[in-house]
Amino acid sequence: MSKRVSAEREKLLREELDRSEATRDEPLPPGLGQRRGRSEPYSIRLSADAVERLEDLARKTDVPASALARGFVLAGLAEAEEPDTVQALLQRVESDLAKLRRVVGTE
Q1: H or E element: which one contains 32?
Q2: CA quadruple 80, 84, 89, 92: dihedral, nearest 10
Q3: DSSP secondary structure letter of residue 23
Q4: Range 49-78 burial, b when 16+ CB lie within 10 A, else e
């Protein structure tokens, strides 16, 4: 990786950290719950492609990329902690089926 690309990534990370800190006291996007007390910064490494996809989705939804990533992490944690009951599995299947119908245009 060239120094220029590395410097650009570093700048992007700094900007995202600044945005994250600036919005840390704002409510989470609808459907993602609410903040509980003081939050802690947590650093993760994503591929350039994943960062680009996250930022594209953030622009399309008008949600800061850091809030969107935070929401994905929280949703993943909630799903991972959910017990694998028949009811929970059926809800996931119904949700996935609804997404598929939207994608193919049958809803």
Answers
A1: none
A2: -10
A3: T
A4: eebeebbeebeeeebbbbbbbbbeeeeeee
Q: Give the per-residue SS3 of 36-61.
A: CCCCCCCCCCCCHHHHHHHHHHHHHH
Give dist(CA 78, CA 20) in Å, integer.
21
User: pLDDT tens digits for 9-45?
Assistant: 888 888 888 887 887 777 777 777 766 667 788 889 9
The average confidence (pLDDT) of the chain is 81
The pTM score is: 0.50
Residue 58 in tokens: 């953030």
Domain definitions of the chain by residue range: 3-82
Residues present in the chain in total:
107
For residue 1, the model assigns a pLDDT of 54
